[in-house]
Design goal:
alpha/beta; about 250 residues; globular; about 20% strand; disordered N terminus; Rossmann fold
């Protein structure tokens, strides 16, 4: 099912959310995305934290057995802004039928190749989410994406339109604080831990702003959990929202 070149646009017109310069920036990173010591090293450190939150949210939402190795068996999942598939592949291993979509075709090509080599059946698509007639999904994720889109409200509405009845959405994004500006841009980008130009602090979204954006899209946001950093623990789930946070959302 892996297909990095699927376009299949629907006739639905919607606001454009992709910023071409952002897509080009991330597309240039495609070849190194799966290298844990490469330009996406920070994402490799972040992914286990996301998955810890996701697993708990999945078990709570569907009242699953925490011992079940495949809690998403029989369910569909859509990862928007999937990059080269760092989250799609664990979702597939959790049992989901997974679709990943990304603004950069270089990323979906890399994702499809890696999935094929890993023996995973994942569908990948490039372009605007609204341009693809792909139905709805039990789980919709968008990790570190909303801060990169041109129209945050349109993007949230497009995500909501892809969420099936009774489904679960999970998003993560940097908070717009002095701490995030200092650490994520000044330090992380300044010292090369994150590629320069990845983040624009003015585009970061506070939890209060995200709650309002999701509400306008017909979604109720859950209690946010912080993704914090310390020298002892590295990146970890926390009550501290000042750097980055992750939330659930459900249809009202």
């Amino acid at each position: 099912m892996s297909d990095a070149t699927t376009t299949n646009p629907s006739n639905t017109s919607a606001g454009q959310t992709i910023r071409p310069d952002e897509a080009a920036h991330f597309g240039k990173l495609a070849k190194d995305w799966w290298d844990p010591k490469g330009s996406s090293a920070m994402l490799h450190k972040l992914n286990p934290v996301r998955l810890e939150f996701l697993r708990e949210a999945i078990d709570m939402h569907w009242a699953g057995d925490i011992r079940d190795a495949k809690p998403l068996a029989g369910k569909s999942a859509l990862d928007v802004g999937c990059g080269a598939g760092l989250l799609c592949e664990p979702l597939a291993r959790l049992g989901a039928e997974v679709t990943g979509i990304d603004a950069a075709p270089e990323n979906t090509a890399a994702a499809a190749l890696h999935a094929e080599r890993s023996g995973l059946d994942i569908r990948y698509m490039a372009g605007e989410l609204a341009s693809h007639d792909i139905g709805t999904f039990d789980l919709v994720t968008a990790m570190e994406v909303i801060e990169h889109v041109a129209d945050k409200q349109a993007f949230a509405s497009q995500l909501a339109a892809r969420l099936a009845d009774g489904g679960l959405m999970v998003l993560s994004t940097p908070n717009r604080t002095v701490r995030s500006r200092t650490l994520m841009i000044g330090a992380a980008e300044g010292f090369g831990l994150i590629p320069r130009g990845t983040h624009h602090w003015d585009d970061f979204v506070t939890p209060e702003e995200l709650s309002d954006i999701l509400a306008e899209a017909g979604l109720t946001m859950g209690e946010p959990r912080g993704i914090a950093f310390s020298p002892m623990k590295g990146l970890h789930l926390s009550g501290d929202l000042s750097l980055n946070y992750i939330v659930t959302a459900r249809a009202r």
